[in-house]
Amino acid sequence: MQLIPIIIFFIILFIIIIVLFKLYQILTLGYCTSPNRMNGKVVIISGANAGIGFETAKDLATRGARVILACRNEIKGRKAQEIIKQETGNNEVVYKQLNLSSLQSVKDFVDDIYVTENHLDVLINNAGVVRQNNHHTKDGIIEDMQINYFAHYLLTLLLLPLLKQSQPSRIINVTSCLHIFGVIDFNKINLSNYYNYFRVYCNSKLCNVLFTVELAKRLEGSGVVVNCVHPGVVKTTIVKSLSFIMSKLVTFYFYLFFKTPYEGAQTTIHVAVSDECKSINGKYFSDCKECRMTCKARDSKLTAKLWEYSANLVKLNNYEK
Ligand SMILES: *[C@@H]1O[C@H](CO)[C@@H](O)[C@H](O)[C@H]1NC(C)=O
Ligand SMILES: *[C@@H]1O[C@H](CO)[C@@H](O)[C@H](O)[C@H]1NC(C)=O
Ligand SMILES: *[C@@H]1O[C@H](CO)[C@@H](O)[C@H](O)[C@H]1NC(C)=O
Prior knowledge:
- The chain is of the alpha/beta class.
- Helix 5 (143-165) links the parallel strand 4 (122-125) and strand 5.
- It has helices spanning 3-28, 51-62, 74-88, 103-116, 143-165, 197-219, 244-257, 261-273, 300-313, 316-319, and strands spanning 42-46, 66-71, 93-97, 122-125, 169-174, 224-230, 284-286, 289-291.
- The chain has ten helices and eight strands.
- The relative contact order is 0.14.
- The protein binds 2-acetamido-2-deoxy-beta-D-glucopyranose (3 copies).
């Protein structure tokens, strides 16, 4: 009988905490306030058919950019293309197939870009997944690691000549604050089913951050800047690849704490278009503000080693033009 008031007390406490959290989130939310237009600029966004990628694409199309939606699923990609064209009145919205599970697809995509585009102003490495089975792709890489990191590594490096030729240009890597839970162990990174899907996600996001730091160093003075952004916890379709119960749990969790994809896209847009970010290089942004990244990212031996490891895994030399 004593139990009921206690349970009610905890339920009320829980609700108060959630409301306070939501309030905090609303008050700290960063919005991109830059009015900059993007007319004449070419932007590539991976995973642009849904969620943050879609909202980012729509915003940049509104600003007048030529936006290339790089997505795996042609039907969803073309549908997103139609919606964005209709809503923004911008006809320069293009769909091109990019299947990050296949390095050959990355290479074909890039070959096509070199045929149709003579410059590239912004590359947004946005696509990301969380799955439950971590098997190797045909390329011999754990699939989630390949989609979230290694294929983007290859994509970025193959597009670098075009980005350099189009300076000032920008590369943006969408990562996650979960990168702080990531570890890089070169003996284990390529083992199937060694890490659970959550760890694989964190590891791949740490790779994004380390790579940003290393590439920024290599791009110093080239007119190309590279930064990474944490979009916040956003309700996206990323959960669709989880099992039914897990996806329900994650969806509930997102429901309590999420930002909308539109809100989640703000930091990426800010880093892509604002004058403040024109010459900032190798930094980490959250809520449209520069933030500290994990101390692991300051380990220059680790960032250099990951670069070499990645080049080897994607067989970079075979692809270089
Ligand atoms: C993407 O590539 C993988 C590996 O080559 C392949 O198994 C899969 O069917 C491809 N998906 C699409 C939609 O093309
Ligand atoms: C990664 O693992 C796969 C499957 O075991 C293997 O084929 C591939 O060579 C490995 N790659 C590296 C660089 O260790
Ligand atoms: C992000 O960082 C570099 C460029 O900074 C790129 O080569 C890397 O593959 C990018 N993508 C991701 C998702 O890490």
